[in-house]
UniProtKB/TrEMBL annotation:
Belongs to the intradiol ring-cleavage dioxygenase family. Residues 1-18 form the signal peptide. InterPro entries: 3_4-PCD, Intradiol_dOase_C, Intradiol_dOase_core, Intradiol_RC_Dioxygenase. Residues 57-205 form the Intradiol ring-cleavage dioxygenases domain. CDD domains: 3_4-PCD. PANTHER family: DIOXYGENASE, PUTATIVE (AFU_ORTHOLOGUE AFUA_2G02910)-RELATED (PTHR33711), INTRADIOL RING-CLEAVAGE DIOXYGENASES DOMAIN-CONTAINING PROTEIN (PTHR33711:SF10). It comes from Neoehrlichia mikurensis. This is Protocatechuate 3,4-dioxygenase.
Length: 214
């Protein structure tokens, strides 16, 4: 009986001091400053697939994007504005429409897709988006552009890529990010109970935050 109690106590102690694997070994996320196709105004919602008030959803595979934003000390950053923009399922950017690049009558233009979104991290640094899998744009492989803004940090830009593609063939990723760091920008996915792919993209900022102990 005594041995059983010792084993139970040891297990509970190990659980109490277990470290969240998501925030262990926080490695700075590579920055990609590429504002091509960045919208002038971001759609104020974390749902790019359905515009507010509309019952119609955008075409393409439904996916979820989730992640955690931390500083390099693995401290979660709350109230971080996370903005994204991407191509639709056909590889068309909404910001390209009406500026002589894409006609609204183009059959690859999806009027129900917002093309951009914005959300704010919670007190644990978590964020999430609902969107569709982006298509290839020009010579670019499918990706999502990120912009992070917070009063205590410099504006940070990067891009998220998807597993299952030959991402080293992407001209921006291959030219702007070192080979050893590229995997940090490739998101892995799991499938939830509804059969929807959930991609996780954690972001670690290198600048000092107000939470850092001097």
């Amino acid at each position: 009986m005594f041995k059983i109690l010792v084993i139970i106590f040891a297990f509970l102690a190990s659980e109490a001091y277990a470290v969240d694997p998501v925030i262990v070994n926080c490695v700075e996320t590579p920055e990609i400053y590429n504002v091509q196709n960045k919208p002038r105004h971001f759609y104020v919602s974390n749902n790019l697939r359905r515009k507010t008030g509309s019952p119609i959803t955008a075409k393409g595979e439904l996916i979820y994007i989730i992640g955690k934003v931390t500083d390099r000390n693995c401290v979660p950053i709350a109230n971080m504005n996370v903005s994204i923009w991407q191509a639709n399922t056909y590889g068309i950017y909404q910001s390209s429409v009406g500026n002589d690049k894409v006609s609204p009558n183009n059959n690859k233009y999806d009027e129900h897709f917002s093309g951009s979104g914005i959300t704010t991290t919670d007190n644990l640094g978590n964020y999430s988006f609902i969107t569709v899998m982006p298509g290839k744009y020009s010579d670019r492989l499918p990706h999502i552009s990120f912009m992070l803004q917070h009063p205590d940090f410099l504006v940070f830009y990067t891009e998220m890529f998807f597993e299952g593609y030959n991402n080293t063939a992407d001209p921006v990723l291959s030219h702007m990010v070192s080979p050893n760091s590229r995997k940090l920008l490739v998101s892995q996915y799991t499938v939830n109970d509804m059969g929807i792919k959930v991609y996780r993209f954690n972001i670690t900022l290198g600048e000092k935050s107000i939470y850092k102990t001097k």
